[in-house]
């Protein structure tokens, strides 16, 4: 049985979101959510992890910026406590790189950090963090170019510069 919230999220992302199937669990009808729950259980996920993944997605959807609100650029992020424990140097460096290249703005960086910290894993490596970034960008209106660039990065060993 698969045990991680991230495993459920990746399965949903690869099978539903990436195929342009609009599905936000909180917005789904009870029948649709129940059907999806059944499919995920059949795929080997536990109901507890599925529910946690739905909660994670709902929290992400609730943090969408209002249309027309300018995105913030902020100071350099200083990581503290649990963030340092959960995100290794490579992951933190990648977030800084994304922000410097304008793939993420300060608000999106904070959203990525919030969603990364909400995962039930003690540590997130760079590949896991890339998936979180991709899911956040997918959920952000106006981030289509950043999403497309990030999608290409998922299969590269080293990031390409943004032009």
Give the topology, please.
Blueprint: H1 5-15, H2 30-42, H3 47-62, H4 82-86, H5 89-100, H6 106-117, H7 126-138, H8 144-153
Outline the structure in words.
The chain is mostly helical. It has two domains: 1-62; 72-163. It is built from eight helices and no strands. The radius of gyration is 16 Å and the shape is globular.
| Proportion in β-strands | under 5%
- Span from first to last CA? 42 Å
Poorly predicted segments: 24-29
Q: What's the structural domain tally?
A: 2
Give the total of beta strands: 0
Query: Overall pLDDT, averaged?
Result: 81
| Major sheet summary line | none
Radius of gyration: 16 Å
Number of helices: 8
Helix content: 55-70%
Secondary-structure-derived class: mainly alpha
Q: Outline, from the CA principal axes? A: globular
Order of helices and strands: HHHHHHHH
Write a short abstract of this structure.
This protein is an all-alpha fold.
What distinguishing features does this structure have?
163 residues; mainly alpha; 2 domains; 56% helix
């Amino acid at each position: 049985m698969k045990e991680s919230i991230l495993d459920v999220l990746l399965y949903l992302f690869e099978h539903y979101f990436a195929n342009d199937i609009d599905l936000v669990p909180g917005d789904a009808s009870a029948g649709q959510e129940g059907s999806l729950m059944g499919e995920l259980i059949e795929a080997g996920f536990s109901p507890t992890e599925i529910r946690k993944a739905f909660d994670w997605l709902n929290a992400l959807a609730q943090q969408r910026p209002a249309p027309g609100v300018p995105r913030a650029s902020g100071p350099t992020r200083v990581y503290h406590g649990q963030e340092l424990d959960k995100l290794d140097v490579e992951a933190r460096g990648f977030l800084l790189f994304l922000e410097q290249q304008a793939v993420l703005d300060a608000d999106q960086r904070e959203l990525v950090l919030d969603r990364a910290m909400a995962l039930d894993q003690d540590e997130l490596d760079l590949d896991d963090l890339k998936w979180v970034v991709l899911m956040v960008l997918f959920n952000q209106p106006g981030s289509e170019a950043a999403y497309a660039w990030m999608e290409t990065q998922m299969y590269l060993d080293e990031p390409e510069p943004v032009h």
